[in-house]
Design goal:
6-stranded parallel β-sheet, globular, binds adenosine-5'-diphosphate, binds zinc ion
């Protein structure tokens, strides 16, 4: 057989297949991770195809596969197909696409082993003792040797030739196996009567059916006893894939809920799916989407199939995870970034072997292996976190649809504020639209009051909070309820400026203003994290009139504490959640009512269900509205509606105050009424008029480099080539740019954009895929860009 192998490397230049002969003694399958000779080295590769032949037809010397790293298929054919699609659609190498599915990105790790050298170390010296140790073991891995004898001594050993280094490759993805004792029968009463110890072991085994050998050793049964029992044929020893135990609470039968009519209807529709369609579940905030997900999940499980549930950010969506665990117990595996690689790999294997049935996780969980998928759920499907912001820049929703298509299973895109493109596809028949228009228990949607901040200013109120907002929060506090305050900017002030000359302090490496953080008392760059001391005089003109402008969450917190000295206030933003689990801790303590006011960035608007929240205050509804991006209106509407939707989910009806400088803007007005359809109808007209998604597809080619002049040259060259291609082919693709990106420089690299727009970009992508210029360093492909 001949294996087509993709080399597992990040090098963009190696993006074709290489052929290898499969030796007879190796069990190589499609999807196997293998070691292969590559030039003078050994490299890791993934087998993406197998074909008959001995290599003679290829016309060049074909070398054999050296070893198999995982004996079970590391990848299934479906994953390879999906990876191929990702590679072509998102314009990345096949290796990059395959790596998305890997937990352990490097299957082969280079190691150095010490072997005894020709020179003998002086007898009795420390060196001699070390060499002796190596000699006794035959060889010793470098880090272990260093651990035992110290860095400097080990260097001496090598320098004097007492030892040599040998390079070896370590299989980092080898399957971990363990021995399991399996019950066969206990029909031989005579034999068992004669051997009481074996009988006791068999009795213990019978209750379980099978269990790891180690479990019996822990109970005091010897290995020898087990092998003697196996020799009788009453039990057998099997090798199974090792797995770590799941640390999830076991199944607790929660009280049965009576579904609402709308929930019932949605469940019936999706249950009847035979074509594996995509459903846009547009359910207003508090309409009970989670219950729909869980009911459908239970049905899929009953068919012996598996479910992937995607959530925006595990740290902020602990509630939905806990609900699934409460209902489905250890059938659930949770994929989050705080798991070790071993745990994640184990979770993946549990899904691959069908031992677990539900995988919940953020964006990357869409790549979890599966035996047989029956449903993919994407909660809050509009959330921007589903788009990966580094290469390959995939969108999890589209990958989910691709995988689901292979299994013929449905995909649910759930949201109170579906993306405009998804909604368009749903009402035009590409997807199916399902709506839930009422809150559970017929609770009303909150009442939203819009406050014109220009009037507030005219009346002489210079605080961040309008009088209406103060009144609303006071009322909630008096009634013993909770309040949420949203301000989508962190830090204390938002920029620092000289009042005399107008100089704004910017980051040295990025083209953005530095933000003043009172906590830590420094200026911080929100793009590269650089910190600087606060200047006392203007760096440009030397004047002392350096001032802080704008309001971030830190300053808002300070002002809230002055306004509500008796309320317990907690802040939720990137600065308070940098430590492990801190986001979840803040959210849970607020849910327990340890705090009265939750103040924070968009993190406070992520689908939380806090029944005691009666008031929501949005300090600056326009924070995203004026960004120069076609999605500014959409993101604003989503944020405002989601934030407002946190209010009134319990017994007290919700009230919302929205502060804005643009009260007449349609986005603000539609958000005030929480009227998605009205917003959509306006927004889609604008998209059509300017040919933005869903009417046109976009491809953003980002070109980055340190030398500004050379960069423009390169950008112009690339754009020129594309324009030539358009001319030659008569294609209807529009090429815009190059122009400087919204942020013209990040981490010392300038950024240019060439934007491609068209009804179809498939042909131009084909062209790009085969032109090496676009695979150079510093050229970044962003298909369906988020900005
Ligand atoms: P959404 O995600 O649509 O905003 P949730 O799924 O958080 O809404 O549900 C809102 C609340 O209603 C939750 O507290 C949930 O437990 C409850 N709920 C959902 N369905 C029902 C039902 N059929 N009967 C009673 N309560 C329900
Ligand atoms: Zn100045
Ligand atoms: Zn910076």
């Amino acid at each position: 057989m001949i294996a087509d192998v993709i080399i597992n490397t990040t090098a963009k230049s190696l993006h074709q297949c290489f052929s290898y002969i499969v030796p007879d003694h190796l069990d190589v399958r499609i999807g196997s991770r293998v070691a292969v000779p590559f030039g003078p080295r050994t490299a890791e590769g993934i087998v993406v195809a197998l074909s008959p032949g001995d290599g003679s037809q290829l016309g060049f010397d074909v070398r054999p596969v050296s070893a198999v790293l995982t004996c079970h298929a590391g990848f299934q054919e479906e994953m390879i197909e999906t990876a191929r699609w990702i590679s072509e659609y998102y314009l990345c190498t096949m290796a990059d696409a395959l790596r998305l599915f890997m937990v352990e990105k490097q299957g082969l790790k280079r190691q150095y082993w010490a072997v005894p050298g020709e020179q003998a170390a002086p007898a009795g010296s420390e060196e001699a003792a070390a060499v002796d140790c190596v000699r006794r073991l035959g060889s010793m891995e470098r880090s272990r040797l260093v651990q035992k004898f110290g860095q400097s001594l080990v260097e001496q050993l090598a320098a004097h030739g007492y030892i040599h280094w040998e390079q070896r490759m370590k299989n980092a993805v080898a399957d971990k196996r363990e021995r399991w004792l399996v019950f066969r029968h206990d029909d031989d009463a005579k034999l068992l009567a004669r051997r009481p110890r074996q009988a006791a072991l068999l009795q213990a085994l019978k209750e379980k059916g099978s269990a790891p050998e180690a479990a019996f050793v822990a109970q005091g049964f010897s290995r020898d006893l087990m092998s003697r029992l196996c020799a009788t044929g009453l039990a057998a020893m099997e090798e199974r894939l090792a797995r770590t135990s799941q640390l999830l609470p076991s199944l607790e039968s929660g009280q049965a809920v009576t579904l609402t009519e709308e929930q019932e209807h949605v469940i019936q529709q999706i249950q009847a799916d035979t074509k594996g369609r995509t459903y846009v579940l547009h359910g207003i905030t508090g309409s009970g989407k989670t219950e729909v997900y869980m009911q459908l999940t239970a049905q899929v499980l009953a068919q012996g199939k598996q479910v992937i549930v995607l959530v925006p950010e595990i740290a902020l969506t602990g509630q939905i995870v806990r609900q699934f665990i409460r209902r489905f117990g250890d059938q659930v595996v949770v994929m989050h970034s705080q798991l070790s690689k071993g745990e994640r790999r184990n979770n993946g294997l549990r899904m691959l072997y069908g031992e677990s049935s539900i995988c919940i996780g953020a964006r990357s969980a869409v790549f979890t292996a599966a035996q047989s998928l029956g449903l993919i759920i994407v909660d809050e499907a509009h959330d921007s976190s589903y788009k990966q912001d580094e290469a390959p820049r995939y969108r999890a929703v589209d990958v989910a649809r691709r995988r689901a298509a292979y299994y013929g299973c449905p995909v649910i895109l759930g949201s109170a504020t579906p993306s405009v493109s998804d909604y368009y596809r749903a009402i035009h028949g590409e997807y199916v639209l399902l709506e839930m228009t009422r809150r559970v228990g017929n609770r009303p949607l909150p009442d939203v009051q819009v406050v014109d901040m220009r009037e507030e200013l005219a009346r002489g109120n210079y605080r961040v909070a309008s009088d209406a907002m103060v009144a609303l929060i006071s009322q909630a506090m008096q009634e013993g309820n909770q309040a949420i305050v949203l301000l989508n900017r962190r830090g204390f002030s938002t920029f620092v400026m000289c009042r005399k000359c107008g100089y704004v302090v910017k980051c040295h490496k990025c083209d953005v203003p530095m933000v003043y953080h009172k906590q830590g008392s420094c200026l911080r760059c929100h793009y590269c994290g650089a910190e600087e001391e606060i200047p006392t005089v203007c760096p440009s003109c030397g004047s002392k009139y350096i001032k802080f402008f704008g309001t971030g969450t830190e300053k808002a917190e300070e002002q809230l504490r002055e306004l509500f000295p008796n309320s317990r206030i907690i802040r939720l933003d990137q600065d308070t959640t940098s430590r492990k689990n801190s986001g979840d801790r803040i959210i849970e303590s607020f849910r327990r009512h340890d705090y009265d006011i939750l103040l924070g960035t968009q993190m406070v608007a992520k689908g939380h269900d806090f029944p005691a929240v009666s008031a929501v205050a949005i300090l600056s509804a326009d924070s995203l509205l004026n960004l120069p991006a076609y999605w500014a209106g959409e993101r604003t509407f989503q944020l405002l509606t989601q934030a407002a939707g946190r209010a009134g989910r319990g017994d007290t009806p919700g009230q919302v105050v929205m502060q804005t400088y643009a009260p007449d803007h349609y986005v603000i007005q539609c958000a005030q009424r929480q009227d998605y359809r009205a917003f959509y109808d306006q927004e889609i007209q604008f998209r059509q008029a300017f040919l933005y998604p869903p009417f046109h597809y976009l491809l953003k080619i980002l070109v980055t480099g340190e030398d500004e002049q050379a960069l423009w040259q390169k950008g112009n060259d690339l754009a020129q080539r594309l324009r030539q291609w358009v001319q030659q082919t008569g294609s209807a693709v529009e090429i815009v740019g190059p122009y400087a990106d919204i942020i013209a420089r990040i981490r010392g690299k300038y950024r240019l954009v060439i934007l491609l727009k068209g009804c179809s970009l498939e042909e131009v992508k084909q062209y790009i895929f085969h032109d090496s210029l676009f695979w150079e360093r510093g050229v970044i492909m962003d298909v369906d860009p988020a900005f």
